[in-house]
Amino acid sequence: xxxxxxxxTRQADPPPAVDGxxxxxxxxxxxxxxxxxxxxxLEEKAAQLYGxxxxxxxxxxxxxxxQNDMVDPVDFEDITTRGLGQLTRPFGTAPVDPxxxxxxxxxxxxxxxxxxxxxIPALAHEECLAGFTAWGATAYPVPLAWGAAWDPELxxxxxxxxxxxxxxxxxxxxxxxxxxxxxxxxxxxxxxTIGEDPYLVATIGTAYVRGLxxxxxxxxxxxxxxxxxxxxxxxxxPVRAGVREMADVILPPFEMAVREGGPRSVMHSYAEIxxxxxxxxxxxxxxxxxxTWGFEGTVVADYFGIGFLETLHKxxxxxxDAARLALTAGVDIELPTVRSYGDELVAAVRxxxxxxxxxxxxxxxxxxxxxxxxxxxxxxxxxxSVLKGVDPEQARGTVDLDPPLNxxxxxxxAERSCVLLANPEGALPLSGTGRxxxxxxxxxxxxxxxxxxxxxxxxxxxxPEAPTGIEVPTVMEALRExxxxxxxxxxxxxxxxxxxxxxxxGAASLAAGADVCVAVLGDRAGLFGRGxxxxxxxxxxxxxxxxxxQLLDALLETGTPVVLVLVTGRTYALGGRADxxxxxxxxxxxxxxxxxxxxxxxxxxxxxxxxxxxxxPDGPGGQPWTYLQPPLGRVNGVSxxxxxxxxxxxxxxxxxxxxxxxxxxxxxxxxxxxxTDLAVTIRNTGERDGAEVVQLYVHDPVAQTTRPEARLIGYxxxxxxxGESRRVSFRxxxxxxxxxxxxxxxxxxxxxxxxxxxxxxxxxxxxxxVRLRLTGPERTVDHRRRMVCAPSLDSLVAQS
Length: 800
What we know:
Oligomer: single chain
Protein name: Glycoside hydrolase family 3 N-terminal domain-containing protein
Region (Disordered): 1-28
Radius of gyration: 27 Å
GO molecular function, one term: hydrolase activity
Organism: Streptomyces mutomycini
Shape: globular
Helix content: 25-40%
Keywords: Hydrolase, Signal
């Protein structure tokens, strides 16, 4: 029901003077912003609270949900006379040479400065989920691959490089990282997540935030909150998570990132949680995020999320009502373009439907951020100095967003993210002799390496006339380079998700005549049903897409050893086939250097050290399931369905071997507010260098609410030369085992614990157990609790 207007309507005041103390960079930012806000008309205030999307197409295939329905025409020259808050995706909307794009962005900023009374540039934002989503920019591995690498420092380095490239062309804000925790593998956006465990997601995601912010780019946490817990794994489906699932699984990554990472922006989720859309939830966006956690940055709308309050959620009567709900909840900026926060908001304020104090609250946050970025300073630089005075066409080819340093970093991350799932007979590494049959729809397609937010997959596919902009070798090409003296033949076999089986027989015949077959299967990243993985590409089950399972069966029936290489955005069921494979390697859209990384793993040039950030299902059903299950969520005698994964969270093999020795010097008891060190010594007992991933889990045998069988609380990637040993210690604090108790408070409960050092979440993979009794009173803890179990590695004398 629409809110009725107040009896008295507010009339527009004459424009105040422009000049004042706000122009003085030496003054306190709060004083500058207060002075500037007082000089703005209501229209000018509102203009700082939205972006515009120049070049967004309302026809054809979009890159945002309901783009065709929600994009209204915008007159750039007219709308910028009021000023402008943000510019949406100046590089990520269409293929544009980076140098030309930088000059064009600077030109647009100059027009904005000239058009508005105050001469304030817009803040330019871009996607950066798997690298800067721009033509010609490095396509890094997707976030699920970051999780598979278990290497926060490397992810932070990548994020810094991404941010530096963005800043070099005039971008201010990046829409990443995604901190959603996987709850159902069928969800299309699994590839955008870091994994199924909140601690892994939190630590890797926080590292990305630190890296991006260290480059000067505003990091944006998304999607806050609950998005990944959608019912039935359908994109934008309602979320029915309970308070404990929210508190103990969904929220901790955001909590850690806000506290430890220093992000300056948060994006609200599309989700509705128990009937309340996140964009209209003041308890979430103000009460928890700001009042409890102390976040001081800006909250931006997910694209069209404010409009969806009216069109999809049906909780707003019209655009002005949607503005009221979102502003009240705490959404400061409408993205990607103006719909509710423009004339509709101004009218609603004047009619008494929206309090101007809400506009002022959001305006203060926006202007403080612009002040911090130097956008309020007189004669602030709008263009990178290297491009000043350059004609757009003269700038073509002058900016390199994919230099050798980036590619080397992309390859290292890709190599560390490859997971060796199985190698039962030691078929890997390949000998490089005889004939190799390379088969499968992902073997000779460069887009097989890229996720749905990499520019070539996200935007480039809509512009087939444009070149890719970066070199992306295929697995086929990389194998031929890796094995130059080996005969290598290729057959596609079938499409990724097609129904034509005509090529399967020929592919099997090719495999039958080879010494080994490398089957390269997996996903095609896309958007809104245009792929098998990606936003809006949810899966009905976890069988390999299309006829790829049929193709794999035909290859296995030939008797030729088959090494399966999976290049996917999620994990797929391998039960019934895994025990017939000679080997299996899993990669998650490993980026532009992913093929070289995979070829290196297959040849043995790279010793795999990746570990699964989510389990591999046995059967295609049994979902939703993650390893964070209480007893009744696991295999038991009261259901005929066994959800146990074929390969558990944390699993991964190596070409070398490791021995573990536990540290016996641990107290039997520890107070609920005490600390102690837990340690193991890892020795590389093989003949080649490698890296082990030490994982620390907690098992709580008896608690006042049901608890998972095991939950990750710490980890360390431990590189070891052949014969070398290292002692890995963790500083354990009981805050790390806190959970939401029966009373709804987060508590540390006294009682017995098992702290398990393991190679995966499976109890069969536990290498050392520490039994510890927590003593003393039950403690209530909050967001200020100890959240990180930081490891330290001590080098020991190498052993023969």
